[in-house]
Amino acid sequence: MIQQRNFVTFLLLSLITCGIYTWYFLYTMTRDINTMVGDDGRTTDPTTVLVLSIVTCGIYTLYWYYTQGNRMKVLADFNNVPCQENGTSYLVWILVGALICGVGSYIGIYLFIKNFNNLANAYNISQFNQNNSSNS
């Protein structure tokens, strides 16, 4: 079962831990997106994401939002799950948002979490239905 995320929790824990929670967030989100998407040929190792995000002082994180956003959009379209944004949308919100007191960046992350939760819900329902049909 894929755990849904809460934006307010993300925001508060990121602030309280001075950004360390963000690394945990990237790691677990990468792991869960890989699980939901399956073998699409673009699987990313969560440890690699964590190391590259730290080594590049967050620059790799921008690329991560772009690539994972595109993976989520493809998955959403394939499964008819509502998702208006793609990787470019998140990247624009995060980059342009940084120029307006950082508020827009949080809008981008909020949208990312919202769409992730929609996909996680659909994935959990499909797994539940598969388990019930195999038990019958």
What can you tell me about this protein's structure?
There is one protein chain. This protein is an all-alpha fold. It has six helices and no strands. Helix 2 (20-37) runs antiparallel to helix 3 (46-55). It is globular, with a radius of gyration of 15 Å. The model has no long low-confidence stretch (mean pLDDT 93). It holds the Pfam family DUF4234.
SSE layout and pairing:
Blueprint: H1 7-16, H2 20-37, H3 46-55, H4 59-78, H5 87-99, H6 103-135
Unreliably modeled segments? none
List SSEs in N-to-C order: HHHHHH
Structural class based on helices, strands and sheet pairing: mainly alpha
Please report the number of helical segments. Answer: 6
In total, the number of strands is 0
Quick one: biggest sheet?
none
> Which range does the strand content fall in?
under 5%
Gross morphology is globular
Mean pLDDT: 93
Whole-number radius of gyration?
Answer: 15 Å
Helix content: over 70%
Task: Please give the alpha-carbon distance between the first and last residues.
Answer: 20 Å
InterPro entries: DUF4234
Pfam family, one: DUF4234
Protein name: DUF4234 domain-containing protein
Keywords: Membrane, Transmembrane, Transmembrane helix
Describe this structure in a few short sentences.
This is DUF4234 domain-containing protein. Pfam families: DUF4234. This protein is mainly α and about 140 residues long.
